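Work Package 3 (structural annotation) set out to generate three-dimensional models for the target panel prioritized at the project kickoff. During this period the team completed the workflow that converts sequence records into discrete structure tokens, so that structures can be stored uniformly alongside our sequence database. As a representative example, we reproduce one entry of 103 residues exactly as it appears in the project archive.
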Amino acid sequence: MRKKMDKPALLGTILQQALKASRIDVDLNACKLWQQWKDVVGPAIAENARPEAIKGKSLLVNVSSAPWMQQLQFLKPDLIEKLNESLGKEVVGDIRFKIGLVD
């Protein structure tokens, strides 16, 4: 049985809840991150590492080789800070690196 409301819900509130539930915000953040990747991390890293997915606040990044993966582990805190700064909010809380396709 549906809960009876004292007054009608505001359309804006309903839309915010629907957008939050649909994860559109996450998709927009991912799109923005992909577009800004090279500018944020620089050309050398961009040639050897590419973002693959965002799951929650964890960013999965494909890396071209084990030495690059090790180097990026050292740079992880700086990368997280720069990415969040460029997005204007805390989207990335952690980065996981794996060897994979970097095209």
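The helical segments are 11-22, 24-41, 43-48, 66-87.
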